[in-house]
Amino acid sequence: MTGASTTDRGLPNATVARLPLYLRALTQLRATGSATCSSDQLAEATGVSSANVRKDLSHLGSHGTRGVGYDVAHLQAEIAQAIGQTQEWNVVLIGAGHLGKALAAYPGFASRGSRIVAVVDADPERVGERVVDGLAIESADELDAIIRDRAVSIAILATPTHAAQEVADRLVAAGVTSILNFAPVALRVPDGVDVRQVDVAAELQILAYHEQRKSSPREEAVSG
Amino acid sequence: MTGASTTDRGLPNATVARLPLYLRALTQLRATGSATCSSDQLAEATGVSSANVRKDLSHLGSHGTRGVGYDVAHLQAEIAQAIGQTQEWNVVLIGAGHLGKALAAYPGFASRGSRIVAVVDADPERVGERVVDGLAIESADELDAIIRDRAVSIAILATPTHAAQEVADRLVAAGVTSILNFAPVALRVPDGVDVRQVDVAAELQILAYHEQRKSSPREEAVSG
DNA sequence: CTGTGTGAACCTTTTCACAGCG
DNA sequence: CGCTGTGAAAAGGTTCACACAG
Fold first, then answer.
1. Which fold does the domain B89-203 belong to in CATH?
2. Is the pLDDT of residue A208 over 70?
3. How far apart are CA B72 and CA B43, in angstroms?
4. Is A224 annotated for ligand binding?
5. Nearest CA in chain B to A43
6. How many CB atoms are located within 10 Å of the residue A168 CB?
7. What are the sequence ranges of the domains in chain A?
8. Mean pLDDT throughout A9-36?
9. What is the pLDDT of residue A8?
10. How far is B141 from chain A (nearest CA, A)?
């Protein structure tokens, strides 16, 4: 049965995708000293409509106060709990090319619940190279050992396209159950493994579609 | 009527987001010498269901042959036309940090319809530095001139978070109407400007949510 | 009087099922 | 037969509008 709906028993997928945005906004609000905030403020900070914010938060069995809003610290803790940010997640990064190195150096992961515990590359020439403080490139041969020894369940795939599927297979065999894939290819993975795709060229193509329509001579015959 | 400008008169948004995937798959199929392909093959190659593939292609007024499938070359041309890949789009990249440099060096843009015509950074120390063959970092002061002189309508924003909104404002003022934003902040832009957001840390947080549920003890064993 | 929480309406997207063409 | 194209149904998501709590 294909009924393994993405939602299962938890939060709606669309809501899950927005919780990180709320968390980010709440962290900022907290830094500014706000003790409470309204759904309108969260809407403003995240680009989501306020009705949508309220609906999302209501899924958490939310505890807003009518006439006042939400307690920033409390809501922050609530969301952190919901999306598993009470622990740090160990992540392995595969592929130390330009993109891999950029991701390894990105400070935004640590502050948002993920820790890159290893950077791996297939090229022996790169092994040993320091990518960032405390992280040196390791051999792809070590992949299985790294995943097992360092309790890794999430991988970032930043290899060349042609290697992506093979690496994904190895990751899954070694116990990884979530992959963030930057290679422009649809990975085949077994049920129970989550893949999220980041395809930058595709994003530009989507923007190009809209650009094309904007410069189209007259398609804009909406009510005048 | 609150004009929901998302669809207007063109293709459904969800379809537009998948056309680049089909295009990629068709290019590969063509390289292998296949003259035709079925919706099942495209489904396999893209991870989209075959019914969904057919529905998407039918929006293009598609020309498949029943019992046979689609003509690969023809469909490729059809999709390229629909998403504006008959021309190259000039793109400006702002921010030449780790990520900006990685994006500038990414070969996948050129082969998929976008050309980075300038890399710009606010740091005078970086100006003049060669990021890739034929591309040197230019000063952020040149931004307006670059956008106008090089017919740029799409920008990639890879600046630090705190600078993103200000840069976006300048981009819009200079005539940019599409932004691919890597800074983890919700940009405020006027109507008519499209923003697509890439938030890598948020992607990991979404994966973490699912990881948390997987390791959760309560699991309804319905698989059969 | 303010702003949450929520049923109901509305819209988008996906899936199903099958008629019909080659 | 195989595979497209497509109405119809189902699922998923967003917006509306307002009762109601503080």
1. Rossmann fold (3.40.50)
2. yes
3. 14
4. no
5. B186
6. 24
7. 13-82, 89-201
8. 96
9. 46
10. 25
Q: Which parts of B153-193 are beta strand (E)?
A: 154-157, 178-181
The correct CATH number of A13-82 out of 2.170.150.70, 1.10.730.10, 1.10.10.10, 3.40.309.10 is 1.10.10.10
Angstrom distance, B119 CA to C14 C1': 40
Residue A2: pLDDT above 60?
no
What are all long-range contacts of B187-195, with beta carbons under 8 Å and residues at least 24 apart? B187/A47, B187/B157, B191/B5, B192/A214, B194/A207, B194/A210, B194/A211, B195/B168
Span between the terminal Cα atoms of chain B, in Å: 48
| Structure-token pair, residue A43 | 């809407």
Residues of B in Cβ contact (< 8 Å) with A42: none
Q: Which residues 33-62 in chain B have a CB closer than 7 A to strand D?
A: 37-40, 50-51, 54-55, 57-58, 62
Q: Choose among B209, B96, B80, B108: nearest CA to A164.
A: B108
pLDDT for residue A9? 61
Residues 6+ apart with CB under 8 A from B76: B23, B26, B27, B30
Q: Which CATH superfamily hosts domain A89-201?
A: NAD(P)-binding Rossmann-like Domain (3.40.50.720)
For residue B23, pLDDT beyond 50: yes
What is the reported pLDDT for B216? 76
pLDDT at B191 over 60: yes
Backbone angles phi, psi at B200, to 5 degrees: -65, -40
User: ∠A43-A45-A47 over CA atoms, to 5°?
Assistant: 55
Strands B194-197 and B178-181: parallel
Query: What are the pLDDT digits (tens) for A137-157?
Result: 999 999 999 999 999 999 999
Contact A21, B207 (CB under 8 A): no
CA B142 to chain A, closest CA, distance in angstroms equals 23
